[in-house]
Design brief:
Layout: H1 2-22, H2 44-54, H3 58-68, H4 80-85, H5 87-104
Helix pairs in contact: 1-5, 2-3
C-alpha cells in the first residue's frame, strides 16, 4: 500500500495530462499491465539479498518468484487478472482516473 500511495500522484498526473490533451473528447485508458515476473530476482543469490532486505526467509521469496513465473506472459497473470489478485492496484488507478478530471480543470494545475 505504501508503494501504491507513492504511485498514485504519478498516475493522477498522467491522467490529468491525458484529459487536458483530449479537451473533452472521449478517452480510452489502458490500466497497468505489468509483467510481474520481470520485477523479481531469478538468481538464488539475488533472492537471498531481497529476503534479507525485507527481513523474510529466502524460501518465501523463492516461492513467490515461482508463483509469478509465466511461460507466456501475454496469457499469464496480467491485465484484468492482475486486479483479481491485487485489487489494490486497480483501486489506486480508478481513484487516479476519478480524481484527474476535476484536477485537469483546476486553474492552479494549468
Amino acid at each position: 500500500m505504501k508503494a501504491l500511495d507513492k504511485l498514485l500522484p504519478f498516475q493522477r498526473r498522467d491522467f490529468i495530462g491525458i484529459f487536458k490533451a483530449m479537451d473533452g473528447l472521449p478517452v480510452t485508458i489502458r490500466l497497468i499491465d505489468p509483467p510481474l515476473h520481470e520485477f523479481v530476482p531469478h538468481e538464488l543469490e539475488k533472492q537471498a539479498e531481497l529476503a534479507k532486505d525485507l527481513g523474510i526467509p529466502v524460501e518465501v521469496v523463492t516461492r513467490r518468484v515461482e508463483q509469478l513465473h509465466e511461460a507466456n506472459p501475454m496469457l499469464g497473470h496480467r491485465g484484468c487478472r492482475l486486479a483479481i489478485t491485487y485489487p489494490e492496484i486497480l483501486e489506486m488507478q480508478v481513484r487516479a482516473i476519478i480524481e484527474a478530471p476535476s484536477n485537469a480543470t483546476n486553474k492552479s494545475l494549468k
